[in-house]
Design goal:
single chain, 3-stranded antiparallel sheet, 13% strand, 402 residues, alpha+beta
Length: 402
């Protein structure tokens, strides 16, 4: 059967740029399809089943649905200035962003980044519901990412005569639990579907322009309009290359109060899927930027709280001994120099640095063992650690030496 290139959809949509101005784009989306019209078949099936609520799913999405929408997404990106990068560059970026390795020799067309479990490699062919399903697809070869969309979530299909009257019959499913019939709404009856399409396209463009075309102007837009994605990049996958995102997450944690915000320590010091420990130094250092911006000690106190939690942990419960002392070193390298500089000028810094607290928490012989560990590891290359050890040793019953 011959393969033909046909024009199925002409998309009209508005992309709202970071400067707030509206940009209107006309896009003739050309996709490859066979004579049976696979694209049309997929759309017809989706329209026939309607937009079921999450607890009454009556349409089984498969890879065929993603195959159908991917060329449209690719052309939307292209028509709005997205430049497809090389496989090599894309693979490097995916490793940085999602800590995933792409095997170019594999025939797998799509990888799935699960925002609920970074180590889960199973694919979920279903639009995000932010409860059971929340993730995004890595589109190999075409080198972009996209959430999973039903065609009506991207395409205004009602503009095309062959689909204009496709949603006449009622869609009814039987609820086995409630023992009653449920009316499933048609896609055309979904409130604000047009606005949803526009937002989906804006998000698609912003994510890919920022992540793969290095267009930094989209970072602020994502922080303002795609917050759950930004939050997931940092807290789930450990992406720390964007200071705007790091600072957003830090401030987000601080909304829960100093004690609760110490949980950000579990984002800075994380277990990779291979069980190795990873330290997000850029996220840790972003605390300094937020502190300098706000001049509020509450920005740094969560690091002190977290250090106390680590000290009290028994070895090998979450971290072994070497990991524990290393984590405390990194926290102290950030917190302690600022304590030394500001504690006499500002209130609420407490009485001790992290290392002074650690010294007092331990027996003298154990503290000597910790200091030796730091020396053996050349202080992990941390610029302030050696000085802060000396500073910690000068604390006495009165408090800070200065």
């Amino acid at each position: 059967m011959d393969i033909k290139r046909v024009t199925l959809f002409g998309l009209l949509f508005i992309i709202t740029g970071c400067n707030g101005q509206e940009k209107k784009k006309d896009s003739n989306v050309n996709v490859l399809t066979n004579e049976t019209g696979s694209m049309k078949t997929i759309l017809a099936n989706q329209l026939k089943k309607g937009k079921a609520p999450n607890d009454h799913r009556n349409y089984d999405y498969t890879q065929n649905d993603l195959d159908a929408i991917a060329p449209i997404l690719k052309d939307i990106l292209k028509s709005n200035g997205f430049k497809t990068i090389s496989n090599e560059e894309f693979n490097k970026k995916i490793k940085i962003i999602f800590n995933r390795i792409i095997d170019d020799k594999s025939n797998t067309k799509f990888l799935y980044a699960n925002f609920q479990d970074k180590c889960d490699r199973s694919i979920k062919y279903f639009p995000n519901d932010f409860a059971e399903v929340y993730g995004t697809f890595i589109i190999k070869g075409d080198n972009f990412i996209s959430d999973f969309f039903a065609i009506p979530q991207i395409v205004d299909y009602q503009k095309y005569p062959e689909f204009k009257n496709a949603e006449k019959d009622k869609i009814i499913v039987y609820d086995e639990i409630e023992k009653t019939e449920i009316n499933i709404p048609h896609w055309k009856d979904i409130k604000n579907l047009s606005e949803e399409r526009s937002k989906n396209i804006q998000v698609l463009l912003a994510r890919n322009m920022y992540l793969f075309n290095d267009n930094k102007s989209y970072a602020l837009w994502l922080k303002l309009h795609d917050q759950e994605f930004v939050r997931s990049l940092v807290t789930v996958f450990g992406y720390e290359e964007e200071s705007i995102f790091n600072e957003f997450v830090i401030k987000d944690y601080l909304k829960n109060g100093v004690s609760e915000s110490s949980k950000i320590g579990d984002v800075i010091f994380v277990r990779n899927c291979d069980k190795t420990l990873s330290i997000k130094e850029k996220l840790l250092n972003s605390h300094i930027a937020v502190f300098q911006e706000t001049n509020d000690v509450k920005v740094l106190l969560p690091l002190k709280y977290y250090s106390s939690e680590i000290m009290e942990l028994k070895d090998n419960v979450r971290y072994n001994w070497s990991e524990k002392v290393k984590i405390i070193a990194y926290l102290a390298n950030t917190f302690d120099p600022n304590f030394k500089k500001y504690h006499a000028k500002q209130e609420n810094w407490g009485d001790l640095t992290i290392l002074a607290d650690f010294r007092d928490f331990l027996e003298e012989s154990d503290w000597s063992k910790v200091v030796l560990e730091y020396k053996k590891n050349n202080y992990y290359g941390l610029s302030n650690l050696k000085e802060m050890i000396d500073y910690a040793n000068k604390f006495d019953s009165v408090g800070a030496p200065d």
